Amino acid sequence: MCRLLAYSGRPRRFSELVIDPPHSLLEQSQNATEAKIATNGDGFGLAWYGDDPEPGRFRDVNPAWSDSNLPDLCRMVRANLFMAHVRASTSGATSHANCHPFCVGTMTFMHNGQLGDYPANRRRLEQDLPDDLYAQRAGTTDSELLFLHMLHNGLATDPASAIAKTLDRVATLKRTPAPDRLTCVFSDGHTVWGFRHASDARPPSLYLYQDAQGVILASEPLWHDMAGWSPVPQGTLITIAKDRSVARTALGFREFDAKHRACVA
Prior knowledge:
Layout: E1 3-13, H1 15-18, H2 25-31, E2 44-48, E3 56-60, H3 69-76, E4 78-86, E5 102-104, E6 107-114, H4 118-128, H5 131-134, H6 142-152, H7 159-172, E7 181-187, E8 192-198, E9 207-210, E10 214-218, E11 230-231, E12 236-240, E13 246-250, H8 254-264
Antiparallel strand pairs: 1-4, 1-10, 2-3, 2-4, 5-6, 6-7, 7-8, 8-12, 9-10, 9-11, 12-13
Helix pairs in contact: 6-7, 7-8
């Protein structure tokens, strides 16, 4: 399982969240506490928004803790909206193309988790994509494919519907009870969204934190004091607006739920 975070609010140095806290994302790359394994060393990535509507991005295949450029980059770069990810591979080789975040146009996407039937269903899911989005596929992960499917289903205009349509399609292809577990965080440079879902009621962790500076979504709290941190409920889409207001929307997965019940019956 991977670890991720996103921030929206007053401009901050990346280091304030990625490097400095006692349980920062860098610390989680070696000592995650709410994942199957503690180590997330299969690459890392950062994405941020500035004056250009399309995000800047830096990714590398090195473990985050061994990259000597990361502390300097995080110390020098500030943004009012940024995202960061450390990867523990469940599908796809360790390569730049498979490191998160993924970007298409103004949209940026990160994922933690896996699709249980991905090896068997990868070809069918890729065939579903229109040519323009298939041409954007640079890697081999289920994460990137989920992102492209959600874009095809309207992620930029109606995220809740796009998520439901995508996971309903995944369900129609499902042949076994192998669980689908996913936490996704994405942004268009103005709004940040995040949600948790799992077919076996065991979604990867995601927490929300809000203070005077801004709003954070993170796989694990960044400091040991849990005050202010609240887990995002399963099946809930969190929407963080540019003014830092937070909205919650219940997600529905009609065919997904029905298909899973049939698989485990």
